[in-house]
Predict the 3D structure of the following.
Amino acid sequence: MKFTTKLLILLVGASLVLPVYADKKDPKLGAIKARKAEMLLRSFNAGPLFAMAKGKIPYDAKKATTMANNLKVLLELNNGAAWMQGTSNKEYKKDTTALPKIWDTWPKIADYGKDYGKAVNELAAAAGNGQDALKAKIKALGKACKECHDEFREKDK
Ligand code: HEC
């Protein structure tokens, strides 16, 4: 192998490793990323469900069931470690929208989590039973996401 090729492989390798290394240096930043990733998975799966309920995309029983079940699977995740102390937007202004209130009122946020869990379970049971059944349960889901965000997330983000 040519020296330049070797060097290129080394550089590409280093660029792949570096972001992970940066998180290792600051586990709190890693935690913030992990909880945001969970939220992104929630919105990735909830998005089509909202769109189907509103008739923005055609209702598809199989897709609705899959998406709602994915939300249910995510409930099984114990991602508590991603909510470590000292990771609010006070300490990490640019990286997170999580308000200090989460930790100041801990474990109040868990009540919102319970409401959310209930909404997801009811939605998962109904999502495949037609657009009306989906519509009937999607409101509670939207409400659960919004109420927690209103309470514990920085506005306008
Ligand atoms: C129990 C509280 C709670 C519930 C329920 C909740 N979220 Fe969140 N969500 C948060 C908090 C807190 C943040 C801020 C996380 C951060 O920036 O560190 C957040 C952030 C987000 C983000 C931004 C992620 C990013 O990359 O910045 C999205 C998108 C999101 N939530 C979607 C949803 C959706 C969709 C639902 C419902 C299906 C939902 N959330 C339910 C508390 C909640």
Summary: The chain has a mean pLDDT of 91. The CA atoms of residues 105 and 152 lie 10 Å apart. The pocket of heme C is lined by residues 32, 35-36, 39-40, 42-43, 46, 96-98, 109, 112-113, 116, 141, 144-145, 148-149, 152-153 (CB under 6 Å).
